[in-house]
Amino acid sequence: MLVDETRRLALLSRLSEVLGEEEAKTLIDSLPPVRWEQLATKDDVKASEDRIRTEMNGKFAQVDAEFARVHTRIDGLEHKMDGLEHKMEAGFESMRGEIAEHRGEIALQMARLTRTMVFIMSGFMLTIWGTMLGIGLT
């Protein structure tokens, strides 16, 4: 049965008559304002703490497992990236080798084209000078 405030005040009044006012207040203050079965014991608190700790440990285990999966995926991606990096380096090395092989050929072709242009330009210049001298002598 729940003791309401009216009953508590009535008890305080009666206790004041029997024990005195100060002692009655002390006794009433030591009584809980709720039913006794609603009070938590240390065992109740410990059981709640254990239940919460178990639930939290389960959630932490799930988070740890998810992090492990993420790390595994990241490691896999890093491995793939390393493979791509090695392939790219090999490709660039191959291209450098091909360019080096053709560098001499390219330089030779450039030298031939330069000589051809110099001869053509010289021929044009001689033709123009000859024409100018022929016009000037007549």
Total count of helical runs of at least 4 residues: 3
> Which stretches of 5+ consecutive residues score pLDDT under 50?
none
User: Percent of residues in beta strands?
Assistant: under 5%
Tertiary shape = rod-shaped
Number of strands: 0
> Strand pairing plus helix content: what structural class?
mainly alpha
**In sequence order, what are the helices and strands, one letter per element?**
HHH
Gap from first CA to last CA? 145 Å
Radius of gyration: 52 Å
Query: How would a crystallographer describe the biggest sheet?
Result: none
Report mean pLDDT, rounded to a whole number.
88
Number of domains as seen in the coordinates: 2
Produce a short descriptive summary.
The protein contains 3 helices and no strands. The chain is mainly α and 138 residues long. The protein folds into 2 domains: 1-39, no CATH class; 46-137.
Q: What can you tell me about this protein's structure?
A:
The protein is mainly alpha-helical and 138 residues long. The chain folds into 2 domains: 1-39, no CATH class; 46-137. It has 3 helices and no strands. It has helices at residues 5-19, 21-30, 42-137. It is rod-shaped, with a radius of gyration of 52 Å. The chain starts with a helix and ends with a helix. The mean pLDDT is 88.
Write the layout of secondary structure elements.
Elements: H1 5-19, H2 21-30, H3 42-137
Helix pairs in contact: 1-2
